[in-house]
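Problem 12. The chain below contains 292 residues. Write out its predicted structure in C-alpha cell notation.
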Amino acid sequence: MYYNKESIIYLDGEWVKAIEAKIDLFSQTLHYGSGVFEGIRAYDSSAGPNVFKAKEHYERLLYSAKKMGINMTHTVNELVNLTYELLDRNNISDAYIRPLVFLGANMKLAKTFDTHIMMAAWEWEPYSGEDPLRVMVSSFERPNPKSVPIDAKISGHYINSILATNEAKRLGYDEALLLDSNGYVAEGPGANFFFVKDGIIYTPALGNILPGITRATIIEYAMELGYPVVEKFFTFDEIKGAETAFFTGTATEIASISSINDIKFEKDWKETIAYELFLMYRQRVNSNHVVL
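Solution.
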C-alpha cells in the first residue's frame, strides 16, 4: 500500500529505493517513540503538484524536534524543495507525504545526537473515507500537557491514538473522540474536532490539543466567509443539540460526523455551513477539482 519495488524515498541526504532502505534496530525511536513526524498532502493542479501548507508543516516539524531536543540541520526551504523532488522522482502529484525524524541506536533514556530523516510519499485516499462517521467518546484521555509537549507531533504520542481508535472499532464505531484530563473535549485520535450550534462554529481551545494546520485553515476560511468561530474549553454535554460536527486533519481532510455516542446531529451534513467549508477546502487545495 505504501510503497512498491520502484518507490523512492529520501533518507539522510540520499535517494534510495524504499525496499532497500535500512535503519538500526536499536534506534531509540523504534524502542521508545522519541521521534517526530509530519503528515502533508499534495494535490494535482494545472501547474503541477500543490503541496498544501508545506511551509507551515515543516515549521511545525522543526518546532516538534526542538521540543524533543532533537538536532535538525535541514531548513524549512530545503525540506519543501526535497518534497517536490520526492514527488517528481516518484511521478505522483496526488499524494500523502510523510517526513519522519528518527534517532540512532541508544538504549538509554537520554538524548542522542545521532539524528536521521526519512521522507516518503504515496497515493492515499482521505483516511476517514467519505461516509459520515459514528463516533464514541473514548475511555482514554489525551495526555496531560504537563506530562508531554502535547502541541508537538511526536511519534510516541500516537500510542494513545491507536488505543482509542482500536477501542472505538472494537465497539462498533468508526472513530473516537477523546477528552482531556479535565474532562473537556479535546480531539480525535488523529484529527481536530469542530461542531456547529446556533450558527456558531466551535472548536477546542489550544492547550490540550495538537494545533492542526487543517484546523487553522478551516478557521481562516470560516472567518473569510463571515461565520463566527469560538475556540473554548467545553464538555461533551455542550455538543448536544448541535447542527453537525466534523473532524479535520491532513490525512482526514474534512470528515463529517453523523453521531457521537449514538446521539445524532440535527441537520444533514450537506445543509450546514460545515459543508460549505468542506467545498471551499476542496476547491482551494486543487484548482482542477470541481465539486458539484
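Discussion. The longest helix spans residues 76-90. Students who got a different answer should revisit the alignment rule from Section 12.3.
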